[in-house]
Amino acid sequence: MGAPPLGPTIIPPVRTLWLRDRALDLDRVRLLGVLNLTPDSFSDGGRYLDPERALERAREMVAEGADILDLGAESTRPGAAPVPVEEEKRRLLPVLEAVLSLGVPVSVDTRKPEVAEEALKLGAHLLNDVTGLRDERMVALAARHGVAAVVMHMPVPDPATMMAHARYRDVVAEVKAFLEAQARRALSAGVPQVVLDPGFGFGKLLEHNLALLRRLDEIVALGHPVLVGLSRKRTIGELSGVEDPAQRVHGSVAAHLFAVMKGVRLLRVHDVRAHREALGVWEALYGGDRPSRA
Q: Of 18, 41, 151, 194, whose CB is crowded by the most CB atoms within 10 A?
């Protein structure tokens, strides 16, 4: 198989991400800085359980160029144990309230309607549901609060068993069909906007992730903003030979730049500074005569 074509071949059909009363221009690639409030996330579990440390890290990511902060209080790595609703709230809500004071949009990564409802009441700007809005209560919440929602693909709605279902005839066609159907369902129920996420690593092996990367333009062509999150993941380690997730920065940047060349304008990353610097160079080369600095 030949190398996939390089270069920015796709112009995203959606130019704006609406985050409650804010409009985020997608002519520029936007970064979601990952803030894990968990003891067991695969990359940085336990580092930001303390609310003060979490707020300090949030400030750092904003200074480094994060456009959105993505907060999660339950690990969804393969085989992760579920977190009780009250425990997830205990971890998430105080930090969310503090981070909202920083003045940047905040995304909440949760698959529980009870947690999502409290987060949206506090003022979260984006609902990030790794189960792909399968639960009608999540759809209803996003519609009622008037917030955009991320629809992510996972073959089953349970991270603990998802890798047992990593079987596809055509992974791109199946992921695309799921995302398209869920997006249509959410929009028809009153959700104001959806963001599509192919779910790299969620019930997918290396060959599935590579196929999705190479054909990301097919998902971009569905006409919704597309979010990609390969930061520090196993796929990056398999391709680069780097075992320590925290050291997979360079491989993560490379994969994400390829996604940008396919039309992706939203990246979920741990290493904000490295991505912002790389994107500054990319925008100067490919983004027109005047790279966006907004």
A: 151
